[in-house]
Amino acid sequence: MVELEEDPRREEVQDHAFDDRSQVDADLLEKGKAESAEMSPEEKRLLAKLDRVIIPMTMLLYLVAYLDRGMLGNARLLGLEQDILDGQSSEFDWALSIFYIGHISFMIPGNILAKMVPRPSYWIGAMTVMWGLCSTLQAVCTNFAGLATTRFFLGLFEAGFGPAVPLYFSFWYKRDEMGLRNALFIGSAAAAGAFSGLIAYGVQKIETSYPLWKILILIESLPTIALGVVAFFLMPDRPATSRYLTESERKLAVQRIGGKSTLTLERDQALSAFRDYKVWMCGVLYMGYNIALSSISSFLPTILSDLGYHGASAQIRTVPPYTCAFIIMVVSALSSDRRFKERGLHLTFLGALGASGYLLLILVPTDNIGEDFMARCRLTNESGLRYFSTFLITMGVYPCIPLTLSWVSNNAGTESKRAVSLSWTVIMGHTFSILGTHIYPASQRPTYLLGFGMCFASMTVATMTAFALHLMLKKENANKEILERQPEYEPGKGDRARGFRYIV
């Protein structure tokens, strides 16, 4: 039985080091058995209780995070670029990029601190309030310097939140429960894209002398601060001391995850992330996906505008692609978690789907973009085909993000390694997000061959890397089976422990 400490600041928490219970879980995964079928009624009730609070709260937080980071795409169509950037598209691109510079700078320190703090609710709440404040301050900017400063700190504080949530999930959920939860969490990004379009559409209809882009920023930013305050009080902390659970539920929550450690960072495990080829290959995946993700989230309204949809019409047409993306995120996560118990083949298929959307944008000409509404809706028309391609892109790119982060988390055997692995993967990806904000120069409207070509290439590389990693992990698991039968075999720690099997 697990002994519970009274003081949450001195608690011992599980580090997910591999033990006998985890070995059973890994074996079940390898045999393709549904773990949910093995749950006791008490465990099912506990899981449902956790999901009722953790999932809606993290989804709402990520929704407002993505609204705050991505609002400039819609604000651009409402006059931000003309009012404070003097119409300079290069300065607009750098305003997008500076977010990722701030994000990268705090990624690893932020996730290490998130692992070490005894009260995750305080950490997540504080980060949310701070980035909400930075986002709100964008509405009072009068020049590029002010906008760049607020965007930098917006990225910095969001870095303390985004990668910390998959780590936070690992405090509570098993490996084959992570894909769906990460998909619902990150699926809020797609939902944010849809909501942002709806909000911008409504703001476009307001008749006022006050700049509409400022109204948009205030509407999307102020709720973030309120949600951060709610997170302080509502989010459960660690399984061993959570006030949200009864004593018996706390014990069960600790037992179902397994393992034991302090809040301190295990340096050898943290550093092992940089020596692990799996982390680097997942970083390559994340690079490819983030070039596409950063560009499509920031430039989709502009791309639609260039297809002949203007103003509110362009804003509202951003909603359907994001809605479809969210649906595919949930379906693919369920399939990956429960049906097939794997990640690599799902990422291969979804990556190919996204790449096909970019290929279609490259191949379909822009010479005959129609002005008639019904003509633009037909797939036999160039505009209709190009609009259809945005569905392929969002449905292919967005689901790859949670599956990749789940893959990284699943195959890191300890919490210390997981914290650094997740951070490093996201850093690699966001380094290329900076590139993604500079590959759609206004001079290339409406073909954007540079942007579409680079996104097609990046998605193709990511797709091939996912398939290669899938095969390599299958081989590693087969080798582990052979090695563990040898009398002289000496198991290591974490993912090198006896019985640990990689999610392929």
From TrEMBL:
Keywords: Membrane, Transmembrane, Transmembrane helix, Transport. Gene3D superfamilies: MFS general substrate transporter like domains (1.20.1250.20). GO terms for molecular function: transmembrane transporter activity. It is found in: Membrane. The keyword Transmembrane applies. The chain crosses the membrane at residues 53-72, 92-114, 121-140, 152-171, 183-203, 215-235, 279-299, 319-335, 347-365, 385-408, 420-442, 448-473. Residues 7-24 have a biased composition (Basic and acidic residues). This is Major facilitator superfamily (MFS) profile domain-containing protein. The lineage of its organism: Eukaryota, Amoebozoa, Evosea, Variosea, Cavosteliida.
